[in-house]
Amino acid sequence: MFLNCGQPLPLLSDKDVPPRVTENFILSGYRFPNYSLRDCLLSAFRPTNETGNFWTHFLPIFIFAYYFLQMFSWDGAPDADAPFFYPMWNYFIGVFCLLLASSMAHLLNSMSLVVREVCFFVDYGTISAYTVGSSLAYYYYIHPRAGIVEKEDKNGSCLDINHKRKGFLSPNAMPEFNLFFETYYMPCACVIAIICVLSCCNTRQRWREHRYIIRTLVFLLPFLISSTPVFYRVLTRSPYSTTTPSFAASITMPNFFYRHSLWLLVSALFNISKFPERLAPGRFDIWGHSHQWFHCCTFLSILDELHMIQAEVRAILLNPDFLLPPTALSRLPGPTIASTYGVMLLLQTTIVSIIACFSWHANCIYGPQRDQLKKQMKID
């Protein structure tokens, strides 16, 4: 009954919609940019060139939530609202907002040209927020000093809880990296996220010809910055003794990271190449075009990232010298509301301000066209 209420609006070809709406090599299945909210919601259940884009990021919300919530049932895990899990909840918020904003942007963008611009501005903003959410999780669970507690012997000298193994770098071997992680890592992640929002929003008003390449390359930078703790941990020896359960739990982390990186690379290739619709324009208008594969690969990378972070969380929970929350022997401070939720709130406030500025500019450009279209519809 819900799906049959009202006659669906006809779908159009790329020649019948404003050039602003068209996508390369997609020739049909377009919704005219004057849908009502109800029309947009109903279009999720009919084949258009945005239907697959919507479902490939909407359904993963529930898949991600399922795997995320499993963590709180682990033996020895603190309560879900404990400070230890503050970074994980910020990571969850980042992923949830990313997937929801992306799916809603593809579902609602046909309401008007102005709404279309705002939808994708919000989409870019949530991507940046997700990268900072990931950085918070990396900082507190994959930080070079995560899982390491220094103890003093009777002579007052510091002893690492692990024995050194040849062929690996010691986590204390490069103090300049520790200085970067503890002082500059999170500020850099936030600054890079803001630069990404500004750059991607600009591609909707400038640099249109190379927008896919620019957007892809722009988000390569936060990946490189955010992943520095992971790079460090891959290159150094494990902070856990090889005889402990923590070592067995954390040993899987590199494999998840490699898969996470691989899926990101494949998603970038789909986004830039516009394969397979480039090979057969019009054949993949509804199902199977590159943006749908881009969404699928992006989510698979997020899922492997979640498993990677969870491996480190489990290792810390299994560590008898429990690092978080902070102890007197710990060099890495534990998470607080200010250092997690506060950082995300400040970032989101900045991103919302940027989106508001670009949305105002988009309204100045496309508002008159929207008003003229409404007048024509009334006359008809």
UniProtKB/TrEMBL annotation:
<feature type="binding site">
    <location>
        <position position="291"/>
    </location>
    <ligand>
        <name>Zn(2+)</name>
    </ligand>
</feature>
<feature type="transmembrane region" description="Helical">
    <location>
        <begin position="120"/>
        <end position="141"/>
    </location>
</feature>
<keyword id="KW-0479">Metal-binding</keyword>
<keyword id="KW-0472">Membrane</keyword>
<feature type="binding site">
    <location>
        <position position="106"/>
    </location>
    <ligand>
        <name>Zn(2+)</name>
    </ligand>
</feature>
<dbReference type="Pfam" id="PF03006">
    <property type="entry name" value="HlyIII"/>
</dbReference>
<dbReference type="GO" id="GO:0038023">
    <property type="term" value="F:signaling receptor activity"/>
</dbReference>
<feature type="transmembrane region" description="Helical">
    <location>
        <begin position="52"/>
        <end position="69"/>
    </location>
</feature>
<feature type="transmembrane region" description="Helical">
    <location>
        <begin position="341"/>
        <end position="362"/>
    </location>
</feature>
<dbReference type="GO" id="GO:0016020">
    <property type="term" value="C:membrane"/>
</dbReference>
<feature type="binding site">
    <location>
        <position position="295"/>
    </location>
    <ligand>
        <name>Zn(2+)</name>
    </ligand>
</feature>
<keyword id="KW-1133">Transmembrane helix</keyword>
<dbReference type="GO" id="GO:0046872">
    <property type="term" value="F:metal ion binding"/>
</dbReference>
<keyword id="KW-0862">Zinc</keyword>
<dbReference type="GO" id="GO:0007306">
    <property type="term" value="P:egg chorion assembly"/>
</dbReference>
<feature type="transmembrane region" description="Helical">
    <location>
        <begin position="184"/>
        <end position="201"/>
    </location>
</feature>
<dbReference type="InterPro" id="IPR004254">
    <property type="entry name" value="AdipoR/HlyIII-related"/>
</dbReference>
<keyword id="KW-0812">Transmembrane</keyword>
<protein>
    <submittedName>
        <fullName>Progestin and adipoQ receptor family member 9</fullName>
    </submittedName>
</protein>
<feature type="transmembrane region" description="Helical">
    <location>
        <begin position="213"/>
        <end position="236"/>
    </location>
</feature>
<comment type="similarity">
    <text>Belongs to the ADIPOR family.</text>
</comment>
<feature type="transmembrane region" description="Helical">
    <location>
        <begin position="89"/>
        <end position="108"/>
    </location>
</feature>
